[in-house]
Amino acid sequence: MRCSVFIATSVDGFIAREDGSIDWLSIVERPNEDYGYSKFFESVDTLVLGRKTYEIALGFEAWPYANKRVIVMTHQARTPRFGEELFSGEPAELAARLAKEGSKRVYVDGGSVIRQFLAQKLVTDLTLSIVPVLLGAGIRLFDRAPSEVRLELLSTREFESGLVQVRYTVTQPLA
Q: Residue 145: which pLDDT band, with cuts at 50, 70 and 90?
């Protein structure tokens, strides 16, 4: 089973403004360009989201994860609205369960959840879309990594919008 990250970040490493807003992503929106997201999303059978990412998705006009298994990592009691599952344990426990249940590729999303999965050496690959903007403050993607994680570059791609996308595979993390 693969645990994959596909996320946009500002040049200075933020995935959202301090209030959680991602409005700045619109500066790279182009007709008929999704930067490989659709192809990636088709390859995913399960999503694991953090509570804050989940709450942002609930605010979209349409549920963006239709026809996918969605698991929300949260310690808060909630009522699922689209068949999503709630989970409050450790990422390794969840990953083991998903592998046993036949998940092939898990999309890990949300800053805190990504960091937890990295800390437990569960992330297999990362696609980072670097948006040409400096936010100066906000929610960091890699806020205090728990340990060094080595990455091997798979590819880079630049787009007309100024977005640069880098793809990495996670090599053996250092102990």
A: low
Q: Which residues of 132-151 are buried (b: 16+ CB within 10 A; e: fewer)?
A: ebebeebbbbeeeeeeebeb
Least confident residue range of 51-55, 67-71, 75-79, 108-112: 75-79
Domains of the chain: 2-170 (3.40.430.10)
Question: CA-CA distances (angstroms) from residue 53 to 25, 31, 113, 155, 173?
Answer: 15, 25, 10, 27, 26
DSSP, residue by residue, 14-81: EEE-TTS--GGGGGG-BTTB-TTHHHHHHT-SEEEEEHHHHHHHHTSSS-TTTTSEEEEE-SS----S
Q: Smallest Cα–Cα separation from 128: which of 14, 2, 27, 24?
A: 14
Can you give the pTM of this predicted structure?
A: 0.92
Q: How far is CA 155 from CA 6, 32, 70, 166, 167, in A?
A: 14, 22, 28, 6, 5
